[in-house]
């Protein structure tokens, strides 16, 4: 199937625009998943007795947990991206 030319009788969306839209949707889905997982894991780790508010130790624990989670995610993401680029160079 050729996405580079518009369908007959219509202007269509060009391939680059379509790819950009798909990439944007994937990035949004990944960010949502990251936030959900990070929230779940840090809440379970830091909040032992859920109540109407977080005490100071829970707030600090959550902040540190989220920072560590983001640092780890960034390391994994950079490493994965580097490996993909290296693999593409071999092809």
TrEMBL record:
Its biological purpose: Mitochondrial intermembrane chaperone that participates in the import and insertion of some multi-pass transmembrane proteins into the mitochondrial inner membrane. Also required for the transfer of beta-barrel precursors from the TOM complex to the sorting and assembly machinery (SAM complex) of the outer membrane. Acts as a chaperone-like protein that protects the hydrophobic precursors from aggregation and guide them through the mitochondrial intermembrane space.
Provide the family line. Belongs to the small Tim family.
Protein's name in the database: Mitochondrial import inner membrane translocase subunit
Complexes and interactors: Heterohexamer; composed of 3 copies of TIMM8 (TIMM8A or TIMM8B) and 3 copies of TIMM13, named soluble 70 kDa complex. Associates with the TIM22 complex, whose core is composed of TIMM22.
Q: Does the keyword Disulfide bond apply?
A: yes
Read off the Pfam families from this record: zf-Tim10_DDP
| Domain Tim10-like positions | 21-81
- Protein's GO biological process: protein insertion into mitochondrial inner membrane; protein transport
Which SUPFAM superfamilies does the record cross-reference, listed alphabetically?
A: Tim10-like
Which domain of life does the UniProt lineage start with?
A: Eukaryota
Q: Which GO terms describe its molecular function?
A: metal ion binding
Question: What's the domain remark here?
Answer: The twin CX3C motif contains 4 conserved Cys residues that form 2 disulfide bonds in the mitochondrial intermembrane space.
The record, for InterPro entries, names:
Tim10-like (IPR004217), Tim10-like_dom_sf (IPR035427)
Q: Which UniProt keywords apply?
A: Chaperone, Disulfide bond, Membrane, Metal-binding, Mitochondrion, Mitochondrion inner membrane, Protein transport, Translocation, Transport, Zinc
This protein's GO cellular component annotations are: mitochondrial inner membrane; mitochondrial intermembrane space chaperone complex
Question: What topology in the membrane does the UniProt record assign?
Answer: Peripheral membrane protein
- This protein's record includes keyword Membrane: yes
Q: Where in the cell is it found?
A: Mitochondrion inner membrane
């Amino acid at each position: 199937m050729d996405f580079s030319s518009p369908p007959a009788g219509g202007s269509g969306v060009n391939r680059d625009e379509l790819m950009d839209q798909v990439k944007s949707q994937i990035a949004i889905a990944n960010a949502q998943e990251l936030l959900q997982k990070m929230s779940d894991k840090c809440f379970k780790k830091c909040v032992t007795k859920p109540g109407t508010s977080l005490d100071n130790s829970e707030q600090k624990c959550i902040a540190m947990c989220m920072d560590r989670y983001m640092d780890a995610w960034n390391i994994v993401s950079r490493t994965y991206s580097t490996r993909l680029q290296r693999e593409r160079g071999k092809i």
